Request: fold
Amino acid sequence: MVELPIATPKEKHTKKPDWLRVKLPIGPEFKKVRELVDTYKLHTICQSGSCPNMGECWGAGTATFMILGNICTRSCSFCAVKTGRPTEYDIEEPNRVAEAVRLMQVKHAVITSVNRDELADRGAEVWYQTIYQIKLLSPNTTIESLIPDVKGNWEALERMISAGQEVVSHNMETVERLYRLVRPQAKYLRSLEQIKRTKAFGKRTKSGIMVGLGESKEEVLKTMDDLVQNGCDVLTVGQYLQPTKMHLDVAEFIHPDIFAFYKEEGLKRGFDYVESGPLVRSSYHAERHLIPTK
Reply:
């Protein structure tokens, strides 16, 4: 039996612990990426999602591009991306993203998007064309697509994942009990089904969860089991951080030793790669997720 450290009430509601400190974004590579993002009028989840690793990733010359605008039709209580009625639907966006990837000489690109529930195809055609154009201009670039909930539109999902990307990710985000609180417009079983169908299509599959929202250790382990049973290859586990006062409070700052425990348990349960740590986000070190560690 592994005895795990827990956060004290003081840790839960005061300043962040030392292990959550990040470096400020600086350096020439960071500036170069920012200029390219601005020049090509691109959106990144790094900015829209207030990612704590933006400085590290941009400083290394990489970024996670967010297509289909920066306004989401969902209102998830953990997410910093703007919620509303999107007006942007740019058929030229795939070309701009592909050109930016080429200029950045990206070896591994991560593409994600907002939810576009108002579109019949959930934005599938823009998804397909973005991956296709990147592969056309940068044939040696590997790609992960982090696809949101398609709301059961499996034809749209198939179109999104058929353009040649190597990894397809869909984040569970949290445990089943907390879905109504954290992802009120999503369904736990539907997200598992999306991963299952992606695996059946022949893709390397990936998902991510946040901890520190009030879940139990047993619930995290059950989520791992559910993911493995539905064909998930790669798992990321990271600390939930409140993006604004309007979002869910952090219930607990999870100790690094617990993240190490989750990594060990995930590998035992059948994932072939687990990235687990306080600052881990779905696209963090994504290039490592191409190849199993087992």
